[in-house]
Amino acid sequence: MTLMSNAPSSEISPKNQALRTALLVALAIFITELIGALTGEKLALLFKQELHLSAGDVGTLHILVGIPSYLQPFVGAWADLFPLFGFNRRSYFVLGALLDAFGFCCLSFLHTYHYATVVGLLILTASGGIMLWVMTNAVMVAVGNMTGSFGRLQSTLMFVPAIMQMAFTSHLGGYAAEKMSYATVFMLAALLSLARGSLFGLMVEPKRQAVTSSVQVDEARRDSAERKLQERAKTAQALRKAAATQGLWVIVAYVFYLILTPGLNLAEIYFEQDALKFSPQFIGDLGIYKAMGALVAIAGFGLFSRRLPISALVWGAWIMDTLGYLCQLQVRDAHSAQMFLGLATMVGTIYGLCLYTLAARACPPGIEGTVYGLVLATIAFAGTMSNKIGSSLYEFFGPAHGHTITHGWIYGQWSGFALTVVGFVFIPFLPAWTRSRERMGDAADRVKAEMAASHFPADENALAK
């Protein structure tokens, strides 16, 4: 009789763990971007032309479709506590890919589009995608904190899409929206989702070794049961401790408020089509300029972030958020759209890098899926509410009350800017380590050295010392 028993994941060197995780992140985001290029603008047209939804209606739809993203901490906690087929992350990664592919496959077979059916299938695809990325992010945070490579992994997560957008996905998105049928787009997305699920082998998980004798089987079973109880108790204790940490919730509140301030991302395509008269292909090609802005931001953050104090994460997020609105206010024609949407993406990318790095530093070891999932769920929920509020303001200040579409766009942006400025009131209440003048590179090196000395991932709260 053969039974599989756990061997320590430390058999894989930290360098190899970092390389495998970087490859996982790069390939997963590569396929995800292909899916997004095919379906992003096409879905926006489906909402506008087939379902006849206004910008505000699309905001409501996104709140519903975003439901799975609000549950990320629970998905992470479940995976941390209850392995599936012997794995805490690989099995859920594959399950997520299957759900995502099934949802897109069903969408491809629709001949008529009804609101309830479309929303239901989009929630299914979102559920699969969220489960897959919660597992990917958990591995990325765990390995990144352990090896001191989180910044590089997060940069990979943003660098690959930017390169792809510059090279071909922006044009592909416009081409798909203008030339390809809904059935073709959704079937290609389903096939790509299946391909993404095949990356599970790159995830860093404990190896399992075969044992054959009856004595080894009994010992392996007892050891496995005892280990599971110990790990579950340890994880539950870490979850309780994290939940009782006031600083974590203040960080979550700060992130929530900054994301919640009105955003006009969903209204942008309406403004570009109805007011600026851009074609679907030109709207897709605008992604090239946005990608240029993102690349500049990623390169700059990667070059200078280690020299900046930890407090720059907090202040940088707030400042970049306010600048983003000022950039979007300058969009008035094709030329200004190319220039200022690129600048808006540049500051928005720095804003995102600051928030994600701040979130990773707040993650205790062993429950990265839960805590990082909590922050991502906060971002997702606040983001959908932000777009709903922004879209409603766009309509309220625009044609809904006898004004022009451009009037709605401008006053919606000013509303977001004003509310973002108020966000600085959270900063004095953040944990002490977020206001540290210690350089981020020095802090990462110190924590990495502590982890190497203890052979156990150090608590990121050590940054407060």
Concise overview:
With 465 residues, the chain is mostly helical.
Describe the 3D structure:
The chain has a two-stranded antiparallel sheet. The N and C termini lie far apart (52 Å). By secondary structure, it is an all-alpha fold. The chain has one domain (10-204, 248-459): Growth Hormone, Chain: A, CATH 1.20.1250. The protein contains 17 helices and 2 strands. Helices cover 75% and strands 2% of the residues. The protein is globular and about 65 Å long. The model is unreliable at 1-10, 207-213 and 455-465 (pLDDT under 50).
What layout of secondary structure does this protein have?
Elements (H helix, E strand, L loop, with lengths): L2 E4 L7 H37 L4 H11 L1 H4 L1 H10 L8 H19 L6 H33 L2 H30 L2 H16 L10 E4 L2 H30 L2 H15 L4 H11 L4 H25 L6 H18 L5 H28 L6 H29 L8 H17 L18 H15 L11
Helix pairs in contact: 1-6, 1-7, 1-8, 2-15, 4-6, 4-15, 5-6, 5-8, 6-7, 6-15, 7-12, 7-14, 10-15, 12-14, 13-14, 13-16, 15-16
